[in-house]
Design a protein that fits this description.
By secondary structure, the protein is α+β, with helices and mostly antiparallel strands. About 20% of the residues lie in helices and about 35% in strands. The protein is globular and about 40 Å long.
Length: about 180
């Protein structure tokens, strides 16, 4: 006799409306104004590599009072100009820091090679966590009003591969 086992909660096929309620997304523009003397250098960037840090990424996305900070990663063997994106949230017991991913390679190259490290800021645009584990962060790069065209030149160099930033395919690791 073939008896069918009752579906466990995790096996349940949720409706679109139920899944939508379990997913969470938030826009953060009203929380982060553009500081005096700054302008948007990059309008809409996605944090790279979030899928490798889902637990920390989801924890940060669901936290309150969050912002983004940068941290150099010069020992990164895939990109000498790598910049970590750190999600910081303020809670009852102080602040928590979450390593959620990286600044996209072309942009990190422009920041480092163009010597913008101490001149730029990140502005959190959007956090999103789906019921199926997908996590997304969108952010802007803000920089001094006088420096955008120069930043764009460095970005173009990175896109063309003229920057010194990362290893080329097939290049051996440094000893």
């Amino acid at each position: 006799m073939n008896q069918r086992k009752a579906a466990e909660p995790e096996d349940r096929d949720y409706s679109f409306q139920e899944r939508k309620k379990m997913s969470s997304g938030k826009y953060h523009l009203d929380e982060n104004e553009i500081p005096e003397g700054f302008q948007i250098f990059e309008e809409r960037l996605e944090v790279a590599g979030v899928r490798f840090r889902k637990d920390d990424a989801a924890a940060f996305a669901n936290a309150t009072e969050g912002w983004l900070e940068l941290e150099r990663d010069p020992k990164n063997r895939h990109n000498l100009n790598a910049i970590k994106v750190i999600g910081v949230s303020k809670g009852v017991f102080g602040t928590k820091r979450y390593f959620i991913g990286y600044v996209p390679k072309v942009i990190s190259g422009a920041i480092i090679e163009g010597r913008y490290w101490d001149k730029i800021r990140l502005r959190l645009l959007k956090t999103y966590v789906s019921d199926r584990g997908y996590v997304e962060f969108l952010f802007q790069i803000l920089g001094p009003k006088s420096g955008k065209s120069n930043f764009q030149r460095f970005k173009s160099r990175q896109k063309k591969g003229d920057g010194k930033g990362g290893k080329k395919k097939g290049e051996p690791d440094e000893k």
